[in-house]
Amino acid sequence: MIRLIAAFIRRDFLSEKSYRLSFALGALATLANLAVFYYIGSLFGGQLAPELEPFGTDYFTYVFTALAFFGYIGTGAGSYAGRLRQEQTQGTLEAALSTPLGILPLLAAMSAWNFLFATFELLVYALAGAVVFGIRFPAANWPAALLVFALSAACFAALGIISACFVMLFKRGNPLAWVLNNFEGLLGGVYFPVAALPWWLLAVSNLLPVTYAVRAFQLALNRGAGPAEMKGDLLALAAFNLVLLPAAVWLFGLSVRRSRRTGTLGEY
Fold this sequence. Notes:
The protein is an all-alpha fold. The protein contains 11 helices and no strands. It has one domain. Helix 1 (2-17) crosses helix 5, helix 3 (59-90) packs antiparallel against helix 5 and helix 10 (209-223) packs across helix 11.
């Protein structure tokens, strides 16, 4: 099993290595986006908005932290559907599903490179924040932040697997990916605290796992909050995991069986 997963990683690495210019342009785009938020924060002269007071940090540090966190856990939400769609268009999906791996190891193999590359990007992102923008987290509670990170990553991986089910069944047209890409950042507190939202959007925000994930991570990193102070957010994330993880595995297996029965695995 480990050799097969390593083979998937090697294949994806060789493919990614051939697009060096794309990586360089992506890194420059990341720095440009950070500069935009940096100067937006500078526009307010470092004043602490009421919505930021619970986190005890300025706007740029808040956005920097949220973007880095959301960008990494979002890998789980997007990688499964993306890799599955790539296998479909390359005509290799049926062969990949014929390997002796089970459903969970296969999903891990298909997304392993994405997570490795996202980890590298996160390290570069953190280095840029420290060196270029001088961001520091002197009060950070790292064990609590890692706990939030683990719960959030599992939750978004489950959402990603469910998203992959739509790709398996319908090829094109993925409503879950559309919601994740267009609304989670806006309504989940990535670009600004959800307290700034009107009450009717705040009610929608409370239905999204990203809201609890971002808030808890910000509190742990910027305020040094511990599990007791983030109990509500941690319990919400745990509840999402209890529902989404088994549902994701069951739905993906169901989607594979249905596609095999209808003979549409090779279609894209």
